[in-house]
Amino acid sequence: MLRLDQVTAGTALGGVDDGIAAQPMGRPAAAESVLALAQAELLEFQSDALTETQEDLGFALGGRLRDNRRGGIGQDGARGRVLAQKLVAELAAVEAADLDSLLSGPQDWQRAPHLLAAMQAQTPDPGRMALQLAAWLAKGRPDAKLRRRMEEALAALTADDTLALSLFGALEYGATTPALRQELLRLYHRAGASRQKLSQWLASLGERDGRQRKLRTMLRVLSYELSASGQAIVGSHLAAVIGDLRLLLRILGLEAHCDQAAAALALPDLDGETLLRGVVSLLEQVWVNADSVAEALPPVEPEQQYRLAHALGRLAQLLPEDCFGDAEQKAQLEAAVAELRDRSLE
């Protein structure tokens, strides 16, 4: 199965460039079978990526906090305490071998008079510190005195309202830098502001190599926030933002395909990123026609318009059904691309 990180690294599925090099009189069966295979593999990897997001620690931790609030626990400090308790419980279910990176390394901080300060001197990332403390409490078997000190240190860390950002950042990156934490905080604030277009989110994610990881981190953080809030999903701003980011994560699965198509086209000023942004622009439009499709693509010589439209059509075919608002939107986009392609032959 293809993993999300493999696609980010440039793994390309075959089939997108089939038929791009020349103007075909028809669609060969071989090309169709390759396209079908590419689409099936893309759907498989995307389904796994979303399952990983939907069932991750975010909902688990947030749900525990919500349940305790319903049980009558006061809200002052409850969020941090429950986050700490649930984090330990979650790591207790993980194989000890998988926690080696958290349990190994220098341990002199455990004997320091000020345990948390000693940890901060070694590991300035609060999310990483929280994971390390939780791992020791879950698997490290500290004595009663050390356990109490670790619990106090973890409680102090989780009392910070921004700990969730650092924690989920550490889960994704292993460790985060102050600059990365600031970037995640900026994205978090954007999620709480007025709803953004997909193209605006794509632009705000920054460098291409890191945006899928940022998306996964934000999905976990927002899932935690939504689950912890206990608010109804229907009509929720956070739920809508989570839906938008999930959709964008699906679309980013086309990155390697877009690169492959751009390489096959070999047109000036056209790369995979340009194709990807064109797809995003078209998906966020309520109504598309041949003219709006042409506007979403870079200008090319008339004799190259067919090849470019054909490549876009192949990319659109790879998109899962739920990337579209409904069947009508998908049919409309396909018809618009086909019209542009046919118009270029006139």
UniProtKB/TrEMBL annotation:
One Gene Ontology cellular component: outer membrane
Domain Hypersensitivity response secretion-like HrpJ: 50-208
InterPro entries linked to this entry: HrpJ-like (IPR010812), T3SS_TyeA (IPR015144), T3SS_TyeA-rel (IPR013351), TyeA_sf (IPR038347)
Signal peptide positions (record): none
Domain of life: Bacteria
Type III secretion system effector delivery regulator TyeA domain segment(s): 274-342
Biological processes per GO annotation: secretion
NCBIfam families: type_III_tyeA
Protein's name in the database: SepL/TyeA/HrpJ family type III secretion system gatekeeper
Gene source species: Chromobacterium vaccinii
Lineage, highest ranks first: Bacteria, Pseudomonadati, Pseudomonadota, Betaproteobacteria, Neisseriales
